[in-house]
Amino acid sequence: MEQRVSSSLLETISLVGLVLFFVAWTLLNIRRLVAGYQTARMGPQHESWLPEVVVPRLYKPISILVPVHNQAGLLPQAIKDLLDLGYPQFEVIVVNDGSSDETQSALEENFQLVRLPNTARAVLPCMNVRTAYRSAIHPNLLVVDKDPGGRSDALNAAINHAHYPLMLFCDLDTRLDSTSLLQAATQFMKNDKLVALIGNSQLGQGSPSTPGLQLPPSLLQRFQILEQARAFLFAPGRWNPKLVSSWGMFGLFLREEVLNVDGLHSGGGAEFDLVLRLQRRSYDFGLPFQILYDPRFCCFKEPPKTWRSLLQQRTHWQRGVLRALWTYRKLFFRAKYASLVWTLPEAWFYQVAAPVVMSLGYLCLLSLTLLGRSEFLGIFLVFASFFGLLISSLALFSQSVYAGGFRQRSSLLILWLDAFLEPIFYQPILTFNRLGALLSSLRMSRTRRSRSIRTNPQ
Amino acid sequence: MQLFSALSQLICLTQIGLALGLVYTVVYLLAGRHDLPAALLPLAVVLLFTFVNILLVTAFHLAHVGREGKQQLRRTRQLPYWRSLWNEVGLQQKQPPVDHKALTDPVAFDTLLELSKFPSPSHLSLAETLYEQLGLLERDLKLLQSNSAPVREKALERLARISHPEALPYLIKLIEGGDPQVRHLALLVAARAASNLRHMDDELAEQFSGWLGDEQLSIGYSQNLLVTLGRNALGVIEAILQPDSGHPRISEALEAVGVLRLDAMAFHCLHWMESPIVNQRVSAIRALAGLNRWPAATSEALYLTLDDPAWEVRAQAALAVVRSSHPGMEEKLYSMLGDSQWWVRHNTAQALGQRGEMGQKWLQMASQTHSDRYARETALQYLTRQDSAQWSSA
Questions:
Q1: Interface contact A413, partner B, CB < 8 A
Q2: Exposed (0-12), middle (13-18) or buried (19+): which is B307, by Cβ within 10 Å?
Q3: What DSSP element (H or E) covers A64?
Q4: Which chain B residues are within 8 Å of A18, Cβ to Cβ?
Q5: Inter-chain contact B161–A39, Cβ cutoff 8 Å?
Q6: Rounded to 5, what percent of chain B is helix, strand, coil?
Q7: Whole-model pTM?
């Protein structure tokens, strides 16, 4: 009797959880479709010919900032590719963030570094800079060797050494394209209010010398390509001038304004945090800033190859984004930030509520199946696959219209097949990982709070 | 592209309806009505519609990729033919083919425009002549009046590349129209066309000066317009830099003077060096630094700006005095190495380094004996950079 009661209680709870799950899942998919429609409404990209008729010396010079930590193997070729960029005036600042491998010697051997006395402006706080070097063969390459402090700390050190008005934060595995960089710089030339231009990072394999993107052989990497393509489509905030962007973003920032908001803060999602602070500054001081998204502004990255590195990366990002949302939670409730009224709650829904509800839903589906009600799992699997395929195909199409993407029919066919499996195998794992990151963030913040109470007893 | 938008709209609307149908079905099942076949019917419909939508997107995507691939292939095949044809016309004085294909084929047009990229003026004028003879100019001028924004923009793009002065009256109509985006693009195309005029009359210069007063134009875009005008910018800049003009583009005009090396505007630059607005003083100094010849009073005026209260002005002045023969300049720069602002120290070291042997001596001395620590380090840094540059050039 007791067993029957507990079984029926479990079934009721699971059914309620399932309703929530289906509602959240449907909302997510509807939002994705609406975002896809918004993307399509943007129409074809205008003025792509402008860079051809702009006087080259009038482009704002760019500092490309590259933090490096134990990446000696990738280093020489990646830096050479950056130095080969066809942009009128730019510098590359590589920050060796306390690497324990051969990074520093690889830099010294390949670029003939000459030691400089350290006279950089210490505008932003960062860990101790040991030495700065300039390359004897590439005058626009500066190397900063510093104590380890993390990616944001390394970027702050690079900002202190940067000379130019525009800055691009770039990882070593990021490949840039000169044409899209010129497009992006044209936007800054045309618009005095622009403080940041957010671009689109495309995942795939290949090198700058090979035209087009190559499809990686690993299924995990292809799942990430689909996910990234959807992020490109599913970016309603990106089309909105009151932008709050998603994870893994890539952008060109005005140095002066980044300094005005104290550079980057440590932890994952540093750029997300930076964009929020830029938004806040524009509202606080009534500045007519614009942060825009331009899909033609592309970089290319190779996705993580193993589950371990992927989950670590996502945990790091999720924690960073959550911390930023929590830190700037006051932006929700003040009248002067009214125009963020849609974008911020939306970010809260997707970053905080969605992982909880979706993970619960998966658990409910599992428990109902164990209790003999397998029809829900069947319905979910069929619909998740079909809806997933529809949204992914729209996303791939949208990406190929706006930002190149994969052109070979065989690649597209493989991606469509993957899109059928991705909602069943890949999305649940990432959802549970996001939930884990959310819970660990809560635990960490509670520990920090109790520590601060102990140290400040009043 | 419009089809893509319509397709997305259709898919979006049907899927929203279908997703709501899915929720209804699940709720129906959850309500304890275990009549699975009855519940499955709406689900099957939802699934069918989703499948049809997937097929639509897939077909459209494949068609898009296929069309692009074909265009690319055709272009690769056609390029050598058109290039050799235009070369024969250009170099061997052959008669241009008055062929209807040239009027519609983008490859023909692109290769024709390649002629205009040659450094020799004869190639440019040949491209212009052919463009006109083949009726392309007339066609594009007509297309400027099209109601379709993409068609108009495409015509503007072609006219920007060919920069034919005959397009000017048509472009002026667009500039004086309402849409700011079209106006600004037309203004850029007009600047390119006007740069090919043998002589720009005062009326057109006044018109450009007026258009540049548009507050919606950005600083960079205005500068680009002025520099694009080339030597023909002189009249426009003169109109803007009149002492009583009150024009909002004074800084941009001064910057253009430096880039274009318009020596005739040197006295205007000296005037604006005394402006109460920091940006205008900075731009005037930068303009003077770019000129080939200076009026006699320039060295003294620049020397005085080294003590300007605004650090931006001091930093620019330090760079500008590299060529100055004002007595006591090295001593002045030596003392400026101890300026409180990083950019002033940086530019001063650079200026001293470029002032020949004497400057180098003062820089060496500063690196060892300057009373200010930052001055010593800045001088040392510049000397180290210079050594590495010399080493690499050797």
A1: no
A2: exposed
A3: strand A62-68
A4: 26, 30
A5: no
A6: 75, 0, 25
A7: 0.83
Nearest residue to B25 (alpha-carbon basis) of B37, B50, B42, B47: B42
pLDDT in tens, B246-276: 899 999 999 999 999 999 999 999 999 999 9
* CA contacts within 13 A on the Cβ side of A398: 31
Look at residues A226, A231, A265 and name the one whose alpha carbon lies nearest to residue A248.
Answer: A231
Q: How many residues are given for chain B?
A: 394
pLDDT for res B171: 92
Look up tokens 């052989």; give the residue.
A217
- Residues 12 through 31 of chain A touching chain B, CB cutoff 8 Å: 15, 18-19, 22-23, 26, 29-30
Chain B interface test: which of A11, A21, A25, A33 (most B C-beta within 10 Å): A33
Structure tokens at B194: 């006007």
Q: Which two tokens stand for residue B246?
A: 């009150």
Chain B residues touching residue A189 (CB < 8 angstroms): 218, 220-221, 224
For residues B222 and B249, what is the distance between their CA atoms, to the nearest angstrom? 8
For β-strands A90-97 and A62-68, DSSP reports them as: parallel
Q: What is the pLDDT of residues A267-294, one digit of tens each?
A: 767 888 888 888 888 888 888 888 887 7
**What's the alpha-carbon Rg for chain B, to the nearest Å?**
32
A161 and A132 Cβ atoms separated by less than 8 Å: yes
Mean local confidence (pLDDT), B197-223 = 91
Which chain A residues have a beta carbon less than 8 Å from that of B384? Answer: 114-117, 134
Instruction: Please state, in angstroms and as integers, the Cα–Cα distance from residue B264 to each residue in B67, B268, B272, following that order.
Output: 54, 9, 15
Q: Burial, A91: exposed, middle or buried (Cβ in 10 Å; 0-12, 13-18, 19+)? A: buried
Q: 298-317 in B: which are within 8 Å (CB) of A? A: none
Contact status, residue A116 vs residue B384, Cβ threshold 8 Å: yes
Mutation site, B68, B218, B370, B391, interface A, largest A CB count within 10 A: B218
Chain A partners within 8 Å of B161 (Cβ):
49, 52-53
Q: Which DSSP string corresponds to B121-157?
A: HHHHHHHHHHHHHTTHHHHHHHHTT-S-HHHHHHHHH
Q: Token pair of A14, please?
A: 């699971």
Q: Is A220 on the interface with B (CB under 8 A)?
A: no
In this structure, are residues A199 and A298 in contact, taking their beta carbons and an 8 Å threshold?
yes
Alpha helices in A118-260 (DSSP H): 151-161, 178-190, 219-233, 255-260
Q: Of residues A303 and A117, which shows the higher confidence score?
A: A303
By the CB < 8 Å criterion, does A247 face chain B? Answer: no
B341 half-sphere exposure, CB direction, 13 A CA radius = 16
Interface test with B, best of A186, A255, A397, A407 (most B CBs within 10 A): A397
